[in-house]
Amino acid sequence: MNTLEKTFFKAYEKYSDAIFRHCYFRVFNKEKAKELTQETFMRTWQYLVGGAEVENLRAFLYRVANNLVIDDVRKKKEQSLDKMREDQGFDPADESKDRLLRLLEGGEILRVLSKLPPKYREVVQMKYLDDLDVREIASALEETENNVSVRLHRGIQQLKDILEYS
Amino acid sequence: MNDKLKQLIKKSVKISLDKKDKGLMRANLLTFIRKSSNLEAVVAPATGRGVVLWFFKPTSALAGMLIVVILGSGISFAAENSLPGELLYPVKLNFNEEVRSLTLFSEEEKTEWETRRAERRIEEGEKLFVKGNLNEEKRKEIEEAFTRHADRAERGLEKIGEKSSIREEVSIKAVDESEFGPEKIRVTKIRERLKTRKIKIQNKKEEAIDSQL
Questions:
Q1: pLDDT tens-digit profile of B149-196?
Q2: What is the rounded CA–CA span in Å between residue A17 and residue A23?
Q3: A43 contacts in B (CB within 8 Å)?
Q4: How many angstroms separate the CA of residue B94 from the nearest CA in chain A?
Q5: Which H or E element spans position B54?
Q6: What distance in Å separates the CA atoms of residue B74 and residue A125, rounded to the nearest whole number?
Q7: Per-residue pLDDT averaged across A149-156, rounded?
Q8: Of A71, A111, A152, B66, which has the fewest CB atoms closer than 10 Å, so is most exposed?
Q9: What are residue B56's phi and psi, to 5 degrees?
Q10: Rounded to whole angstroms, how far apart are CA atoms B201 and A73?
Q11: Mutate which: A24, A67, A82, A109, vs B, most B CBs within 10 A
Q12: ipTM
């Protein structure tokens, strides 16, 4: 195994769980999350082997994972509502969604996070579940650190309100 | 941050890949890396350029086609449309399709993909037949590949517990007498069993949801 491969697999051992968790909390499906995780690492490998320099590999992995999740969510939106029900196992408009989310592993945090707008949810997840710092989150999302800080602050405020009233 | 939130976060960080999946993914990545470097060694001298591969899937999971994009040359699309006997056909079969298999984890998705691969062999044979290029050698190549994929799909069905049912036998009403008739019937039977399986899973999900509500 050459140096690049060793670095790559070291990153895999270190970050694959976190990337999986990150994908899982976005797509709510373990099998899909596994596929997205693997694809994240495959694409990252291709980028590295092309000779590109990556300053922060962890942030880069999150950026790739985010883009893959966005593509996946977009594909699902393009399908009919019936097809979405078939894939996800529940109707997003159904009032029993809360109860259904509880059935999933980590359901309680999913239920709470799902009430946050996506732009707050993703930064809160990355900071508190994935333990990234603001600089890394900004790099992963291609945003300014200031924007990330503001979103984090607002996201946490909203989360506290959700927990207080749930 | 309040205690309730801290507790929830503590629980959620326990969600991770299980040991088996982590090991399997690692092995898949290694296979992918080895295959990619072999492909680059073959393609790069011909194109004289660096090779960057990206993978994206079309919206239809049933189609499940993996499209390999190689910068500047368009070889990817040629490989996907290639037929037995053509230069890039081995790329389609042994790289594009194999790597697609690596991206699938569940037994059902793998079975679905192998069924699709079997269908692709039939489609290739039919295209060659229409062009008048289906000789004995190519027919044999297609049949061998088809048998491999159909066998894998049927083993997959056994693993997910989907045995033959009377319903699928009754649904095949007419024997297809085209060039690849018996192969088409075999694929149709596999598809029927996959469909039955999906319906059973959906029914079970609905029962579980009903019992919780």
A1: 999 998 988 888 765 544 444 444 455 566 788 888 888 888 888 888
A2: 10
A3: 54-55
A4: 17
A5: strand B53-56
A6: 39
A7: 92
A8: A71
A9: -145, 150
A10: 23
A11: A109
A12: 0.75
Q: Does A34 touch chain B (CB under 8 A)?
A: yes
Residues 6 or more apart whose CB falls under 8 angstroms from that of B112 comprise B61, B62, B64, B194
Token pair for A107? 């359901």
Q: How many CB atoms lie within 10 A of CB B89?
A: 17
Where are the alpha helices (H) located in B132-165, listed in sequence order?
136-159
Encode burial over B118-152: b for 16+ CB neighbours within 10 A, e otherwise. Answer: bbbbbebbbebeeeeebeeebbebbeebbeebbeb
Tokens standing for A88?
Answer: 């996800």
Shortest CA distance to B168 belongs to which of B182, B146, B188?
Answer: B188
Residue (of B88, B83, B93) closest to B70 by Cα position: B88
Phi-psi group of A70: left, alpha or beta (phi > 0 → left; psi -120 to 50 → alpha; rest → beta)? alpha
Place of tokens 């899982």: A24
* CB contact A9 to B (< 8 Å): yes
**Does the CA dihedral A11-A16-A21-A27 come out positive or negative?**
positive
